[in-house]
């Protein structure tokens, strides 16, 4: 029988149990064999470790099974097992999930922190180090410019700039919507012969869609045109300034937000150049230019991508985007389930309604459309079954759809909850840090005021002759 002192608590154990061949690689077995950590006076082995966890380590030596203690941090238990040389596979199945759960949470937290991490000005323009030795005025200016553009809370001017940027992003979207209003659009030109030739070109192309004809023969109101290009000019200057403020310009141009900016800006400039230079002169001579015009009109919708720029500043939108990014496997799974259900119920409803002469399901493709609308519980009502067999299929499709949509969405909602909790925790830490900094600053001021007061009191009570000064 040997005596083991762990953290001030004494344990006794049989020598044969410790030296069992199953435990030969453990820390305790090596200590007994090599007489390490042994006190000859007290005849005890001393280990400065947690005695509560060691109780479970002893049980492992006796029974060969390791159970995790309740109420103890999983990472702490893991560290203790590493110290005692006990492999992780020795943990019994009933407790393995406790240790694995912490590991998974740690990996998730690390991944979330990486996703939420944002560049600081020191990452782009470091103050210290070899990169800034002999730092020129231009580098210092770029550092300030980077803070101004990327950190709204860095100064009042930066906050004003952010508010203007936010307002213009919203304004550009509103202007795009106004330009589609038929009541606000104006004829492309007041010259009747030009409009007549334009109408003839549209007729020659057999364009009967009134919305397309409206987009070609009319233009948005003048105030919308002015606001649109004010926004374009602002976003262009802002993009150039951001590019100027970056040290690694190629990496910036390959970033997500830079690509979104370019996708939103380029169509506006193409639209201005083509319509202003080529369209007015050549469209009426050759109606094939109308195709080019319409392609440009389609690409103008890319301006809506500016909304994603708000995720750079607004954590709530960032949480949503990161949650969707983390749930891409579940989204693929959802689409796969939806495709399976669509194929099954779309085919069945076609044959279930095949006897209906005035039915809506003329082919399986329409049946697939109906299946998607039914399974997602949208129910437009444009297509619906009319027979008893069709009603049964519709009931099964709706029931299957509820189960189908519920499974992946629960996982997506869980990911959103994780990101949101992390954001709330991060916000709380930031507030706590500011409060502690403020209290510390107040304490320093109070100490300095006290020191100055003591010095004044000492000067008043001193016997120094003022005439000497």
From TrEMBL:
The gene is LOC106172453. It comes from Lingula anatina (Brachiopod). One of its GO terms (molecular function) is voltage-gated potassium channel activity. One of its GO terms (biological process) is action potential. The keyword Membrane applies. InterPro entries: Ion_trans_dom, K_chnl_volt-dep_Kv, K_chnl_volt-dep_Kv3, SKP1/BTB/POZ_sf, T1-type_BTB, VG_K_chnl, Volt_channel_dom_sf. It is a multi-pass membrane protein. This is Potassium voltage-gated channel protein Shaw-like. Its main location: membrane. It comes from the Eukaryota. The chain crosses the membrane at residues 157-178, 222-241, 250-270, 290-310, 331-352, 364-381, 388-413. CDD domains: BTB_POZ_Kv (cd18317). Residues 160-421 form the Ion transport domain. Residues 2-94 form the Potassium channel tetramerisation-type BTB domain. The keyword Repeat does not apply. It is found in: Membrane. Keywords: Ion channel, Ion transport, Membrane, Potassium, Potassium channel, Potassium transport, Transmembrane, Transmembrane helix, Transport, Voltage-gated channel. GO terms for cellular component: voltage-gated potassium channel complex.
């Amino acid at each position: 029988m040997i005596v083991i002192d762990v953290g001030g608590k004494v344990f006794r154990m049989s020598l044969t149990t410790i030296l069992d061949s199953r435990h030969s690689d453990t820390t305790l077995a090596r200590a007994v064999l090599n007489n390490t950590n042994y006190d000859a006076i007290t005849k005890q082995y001393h280990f400065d470790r947690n005695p509560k966890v060691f109780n479970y380590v002893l049980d492992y030596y006796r029974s060969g099974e390791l159970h995790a203690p309740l109420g103890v941090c999983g990472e702490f238990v893991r560290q203790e097992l590493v110290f005692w040389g006990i492999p992780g596979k020795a943990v019994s199945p009933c407790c393995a999930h406790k240790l694995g759960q912490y590991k998974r949470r740690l990996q998730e937290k690390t991944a979330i922190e990486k996703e939420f991490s944002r560049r600081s000005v020191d990452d782009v323009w470091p103050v210290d180090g070899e990169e800034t030795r002999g730092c020129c005025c231009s580098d210092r200016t770029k550092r300030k410019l980077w803070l101004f553009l990327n950190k709204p809370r860095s100064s009042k001017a930066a906050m004003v700039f952010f508010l203007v940027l936010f307002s213009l992003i919203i304004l550009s979207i509103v202007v795009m919507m106004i330009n589609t209003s038929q009541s606000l659009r104006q004829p492309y030109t007041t010259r009747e012969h030009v409009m007549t030739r334009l109408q003839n070109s549209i007729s020659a192309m057999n364009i009967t869609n009134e919305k397309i004809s409206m987009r070609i023969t009319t233009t948005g109101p003048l105030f919308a045109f002015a606001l649109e290009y004010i926004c374009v000019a602002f976003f262009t200057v802002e993009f150039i300034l951001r590019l100027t403020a970056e040290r690694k310009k190629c990496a910036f141009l390959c970033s997500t937000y830079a690509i979104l900016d370019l996708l939103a800006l380029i169509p506006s400039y193409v639209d201005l150049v083509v319509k202003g230079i080529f369209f007015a002169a050549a469209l009426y001579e050759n109606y094939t230019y109308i195709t080019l015009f319409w392609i440009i009109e389609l690409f103008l919708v890319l301006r809506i991508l500016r909304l994603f720029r708000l995720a750079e500043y607004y954590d709530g939108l960032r949480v949503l985007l990161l949650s969707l990014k983390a749930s891409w496997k579940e989204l693929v799974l959802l689409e796969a389930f939806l495709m399976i259900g669509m194929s099954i119920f779309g085919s069945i409803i076609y044959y279930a309604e095949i006897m209906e002469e005035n039915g809506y399901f003329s082919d399986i493709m329409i049946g697939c459309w109906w299946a998607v609308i039914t399974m997602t519980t949208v129910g437009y009502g444009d297509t619906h079954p009319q027979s008893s067999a069709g009603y049964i299929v519709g009931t099964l499709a709706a029931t299957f759809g509820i189960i189908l949509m519920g499974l992946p969405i629960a996982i997506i909602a869980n990911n959103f909850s994780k990101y949101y909790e992390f954001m709330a925790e991060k916000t709380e830490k930031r507030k706590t840090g500011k409060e502690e900094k403020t209290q510390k600053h107040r304490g320093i001021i109070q100490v300095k005021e006290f020191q100055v007061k003591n010095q004044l009191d000492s000067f008043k009570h001193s016997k120094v002759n003022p005439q000497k000064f």
